[in-house]
Every structure is written in C-alpha cells, then in structure tokens.
Amino acid sequence: MDCTMRHSAACTWFLAALFAFIGNTPFLHAEEIEVSPQQPYTETIAVLQMLYGGELRARYRYLEFAKVAKADGHTNIAHLFKAIAESEQVHEQNFKRILQSIGVEPAEVDLTSIKIQTTKENLKFATEVELAEIDTEYPRYIHRIGPEQHQEALEFINYAWEAERQHRELIKEIQSGTGMFFSILLERFRTKPSTYYVNQNCGATVTELPLDDCPICHKPLDTYTAVPAP
Fold it and tell me: How far apart, in whole angstroms, are the C-alpha atoms of residue 44 and residue 151?
C-alpha cells in the first residue's frame, strides 16, 4: 500500500513538472519551421545554362568568322557574320539575366575548342549549326522546360528560336553557293550593299526594318540598332 502511494506521488510530481515545462515552451507552427528551400526550376536552369554557353560560343565563333572573311576581302559576308554574332549576344545576355533572376550564376564557358577555318568552310559550318539548332535543339529544350512553367524563360527561348530561323534565311543563299560556284557567289556579295539590324530585346536580325513593331517580340522599332560593317 505504501509502495503504491509512493509510486502514485512520484507520478503526480513527474506529470506536474512535465506540464509546467510544456507550458513554458512555445510550440512551432508550420509557418515558423525553417525548411531548406528546394530549387523549383531544375530543368529550366539546366537548359538555360546550356543555351547560355551555346550562345556565348556562337558569338565568339561568328566574330572570328567575320575576321577571317574581312581579311580575305569578303566584307559583306563579314558583315553578315558580325550581325549574327550581335544577335547571339542578345540571346546570351537574356539567358544570363534570367539565370541570375532565379539566383544562379552562369557557368564558365570553354572557348578553346572552337575551330576557325576558311570562309567557305566557316559558311558551311554556320549553316549546319543554324539548321541543327532550329530543327532539333530548340524544340527539345522548350518541351523539356514546359512543365516547370517559367514564363520568361519560355518566352525568350522562343524569341531565340525565331531569330535563329531568320539567321537560316539569311544564310540560305550562301548555303547554295558553298559548292562549285562559290567564287561567283563571293563576287556577287562583294558588289551587293549589306545592311543589318538587330533587335536588342529578342535578337531579331533583319536587312530592312519592319514597318511597325518587331515581328518576333512586338517591341517598337527603336529597339533595333544598325550593325556597322566591320
């Protein structure tokens, strides 16, 4: 009997102490619990990093192509390469800005593996790269990031895709001349004046300014700048 009473008293004391402790201890509500944030745009970031690197490399490559073409006396082809390089730079800067808005810095890009050849070979390579980007890479990237619904990334990747289509049209005539009549084509380009404009918002690349706003991003005409000949 005494033993039972002693145990009962001990239990009573323990419970009293426990409730006193709990009463002085604040509860953490769900919103107060610090949870390590998870990155919601994993695929978008991966794609933007790839596109950023690709655009930076493309800009460097086209500027080098322009130097070779100019040195060979093909100033109009050099002008085309320079215009495309400026468009690629617009895309590069857009992708960098979007990455930074998500809280991610662009990765370092290796430029040492870029090969520069003759103007004829550079034109052929440019054509193949442009066609590959248009027909395979951009649709795949857009499909990959679609579920994450980062609207700005989707918008500017589509802008870049449309600008690449313009690049394809600009070099289509050159593509047909990379064979046996290449020397005739070069002579024709030497005598033909060249003018290029690049939209600084979306990278649209045109030889004549549109009548109204940009056909790609619908920004006003003052977002276009003329590309000076090299």
Answer: 10
Residue range 66-107, pLDDT digits in tens:
999 999 888 999 999 999 999 999 999 999 999 999 999 999
Q: How far apart are CA 33 and CA 19, in angstroms?
A: 23
* Nearest in space to 137 (alpha carbons), one of 161, 165, 169: 161
Beta bridge partners of 206: 197
pTM (global) more than 0.85: no
Contact 81, 66 (CB under 8 A): yes
From the list 110, 89, 105, 88, the residue with the least C-alpha distance to 49 is 105
Q: Which value, in Å, is the radius of gyration of the alpha carbons in the chain?
A: 30
Going along the chain from its start, the domains and CATH numbers come out as 42-226 (1.20.1260.10)
For helices 119-132 and 42-71, angle between their N-to-C axes, nearest 10 degrees:
160
How far is residue 90 CA from its own chain's centroid? 9
**Residues making up the chain, counted from first to last:** 230
According to DSSP, residue 181 is labeled T
